[in-house]
Design a protein that fits this description.
CATH class of the largest domain: Alpha Beta
Protein name: Tc1-like transposase DDE domain-containing protein
Largest sheet: 2 strands, antiparallel
InterPro entries: RNaseH_sf
GO molecular function: nucleic acid binding
Structural class: mainly alpha
Radius of gyration: 23 Å
Organism: Phytophthora rubi
Order of helices and strands: HHHEEEEHEHHHEHHH
């Protein structure tokens, strides 16, 4: 993906786009990694264009991947500002892990809304000790699970008709096509209510979503970029080692939160001034 994306941005720059920005910097922003990582990968590819980058697999050919989630906190007490990870917020697990027979593995498999919301509920409970907090997060699908379900193109026609009758009391022709019904839905579709917002409100917190494609406004992305670069210098040999390395490097970065927070503030100020 990195090689293909590098070619894409190279062609874009040849057409006069993104002037003044290096290709590796564009790619680093798009893929959420450092420019140095981009440079190393492209250099390896140029040295051997047939490289398939499959070295990072276990003996069965499966990629060594891990799911990671964590939350940082910036607190102010008078003139003193401190930063770090929220207590017990770091969760890392092998994505190939399956739930045990007795369900003893709370976190297993690939990341989804169910796992996020379980972790997020615990996070909001922990944050209560600091009073009401402003929670900032990106717009990932599992951050925005809408609990006010309304018809989409994937719905059956009968279900769409039932929704209109039950929620709107709208009269329509039984011969109306699904496209016509969806047009009616758009007139009365309720505003979304995201589960993350609902959970936060229950504990006295407020959620703010960062704009799409603005990774520079997310401190956790800078923390994660540092972690990935450190691990890339000495890759893990198996899934268990991946998890251990991620936890180790996250702990090593906990003192960086105030620095990345101030870095993000500079970008915020620039956007406001523009």
């Amino acid at each position: 993906m990195m090689v293909a994306s590098h070619l894409f941005f190279t062609l874009q720059k040849q057409q006069g786009l993104y002037r003044g920005i290096r290709t590796r910097e564009l790619l680093a922003t798009a893929l959420d990694c450092s420019a140095a990582t981009v440079e190393r990968v492209i250099a390896l590819y140029n040295a051997s264009p047939t490289t398939n980058f499959e070295a990072n697999t276990n003996n069965r050919g499966r990629p060594r991947t891990a799911c990671i989630i964590a939350a940082g906190i910036i607190r102010s007490g008078g003139a003193i500002i401190t930063g770090g990870f929220v207590e017990n917020s770091i969760r890392v697990w092998n994505s190939t892990l399956k739930r045990g027979i007795d369900g003893e593995e709370d976190y297993h498999g690939n990341f989804n809304a169910e796992l996020f919301e379980r972790w997020y509920e615990d996070l909001c409970q922990t944050l209560q000790r600091y009073g009401g907090c402003n929670i900032y997060m990106g717009g990932a699908a599992y951050h925005k699970r809408d609990i006010r379900k309304s018809p989409r193109k994937s719905w059956l026609k009968a279900d769409t008709q039932e929704w209109l009758r039950k929620n709107v009391g709208m009269v329509f022709s039984p011969k109306a096509t699904i496209d016509t019904l969806l047009q009616l839905v758009e007139f009365c579709r309720p505003a979304p209510l995201y589960m993350a917002v609902d959970i936060a409100a229950k504990y006295g917190h407020r959620v703010c979503y960062t704009p799409p494609y603005h990774l520079t406004l997310q401190p956790i992305k800078l923390i994660w970029g540092t972690v990935k670069n450190r691990i890339a210098k000495k890759p893990a040999k198996n899934g268990k080692e991946v998890v251990a390395k991620v936890i180790e490097e996250l702990e090593a970065c906990k003192g960086d939160w105030l620095t990345v927070y101030r870095h993000v503030q500079k970008h915020e100020d620039a956007f406001v001034a523009a």
